[in-house]
Amino acid sequence: MRIDNETKLDFEDILIRPKRSTLGSRKEVQLERTFSFIHSGRKWTGIPIITSNMDASGTFEMAKALSQHKMITALHKFYSIDQLKEFFKDFHNPDYVTYTLGIRDEDFEKLQKVLEAGLGDKFNFIVLDVPNAYLQRFVFKLEELRKLCPTHTIIAGNVVTNEMAEELILRGADIVKIGIGSGSVCTTRRKTGVGYPQISAIIECSDAAHGITNSKPGVGLIMADGGVVHTCDFGKAFCAGADFVMSGSLFSGYLQSGGEIIERNGKKFKQYYGMSSAKAQEKYYGGVFKHRASEGRYTEVPFKGDVNEFILDLFGSLRSTGTYIGARTLKEFSKRTTFILVNRQLNTSNEKYETKN
Ligand code: 5GP
């Protein structure tokens, strides 16, 4: 046994110190970034915020809405090939949508069929996603996927430590997904005791990934996944060094999110649940596997209307973060950041009286 004595930090443990700035207005803050990917060789421009590949947030409807803002939707893996074919007839923004798969043989067989159906050029990103990417089998599957799809940009995870972020990039990932136990409907920490506070994971993994180059332009990149509770957390993640930030909960409850609207006592809700929750295992696999505990929660979130409204608010918040620290571009956020450790992040005393303005 060994103890690492350094305290690791989460979103709520820090705030961003304001800095003198020459920016005239928040309109001057540029949120678009351009990346070159070290394995796929592709170049991408957009706003590097991405919805989780969960059935509440990674929907066709979300992709149609978010692609208009140059944001990416990670489609969940439960769409059938026929549904994908139908969707891609009218959706022609491969830079803003991902295909998702896990490491089971069935996942790879389905991908093979998707490619044979001619859908391979409809999405430029592929997410290879498991809750625990430390498994050797995951690394082998990543190498297999890289051979199968040499020009797709591969997002692989999840891990939370620098050595494994490096390993996944060296084995074929363009972007490593960072986050274990950080998700709002995740119960991994409660059940297993395993996890890593997200801000420290982002700082440590981005530092490792950004040091990796090969013969192509660009460096290894990271995507912070899970734990974003307020819009400020997107800003904090970019300040900590995240290249992309993924969220499920902030894209749940909208018109474009998955699931039916539930009405109770005159109020509207939508479901949001973990993809390893008992609810998801029952829905997609016909029950909870005997060897596997549910590591996800089931929740119902208030119905929030059209996601486009939220996006404008989110962009405004991020631009404002940039103005406070004097960053003209999203790329500059981490260079201009000093975090301060805090005991109290927000003043919540009036939240119970809040009305929607
Ligand atoms: P959120 O934005 O809600 O904080 O986190 C979303 C992320 O939680 C997802 O992108 C995914 O990485 C993770 N996640 C989704 N479902 C589950 C689950 O059932 N169990 C665990 N451990 N993590 C989950």
What does this structure look like?
- The chain has 357 residues and is an alpha/beta fold.
- It has a single domain (20-250, 304-341), classed as Alpha-Beta Barrel (TIM Barrel).
- The protein contains ten helices and 15 strands.
- It has helices at 60-67, 81-90, 105-116, 136-148, 162-170, 188-192, 198-209, 231-240, 278-285, 307-325; strands at 14-16, 33-36, 43-46, 49-51, 72-74, 97-101, 125-129, 153-159, 175-178, 221-225, 244-247, 261-264, 267-273, 298-302, 339-341.
- Helix 8 crosses helix 10.
- It is globular.
- The N and C termini lie far apart (52 Å).
- The model has no long low-confidence stretch (mean pLDDT 95).
- Bound molecules: guanosine-5'-monophosphate (5GP).
- Guanosine-5'-monophosphate is lined by residues 52, 54, 131, 158, 179, 183-186, 188, 225-228, 246-249, 274-277, 295-296.
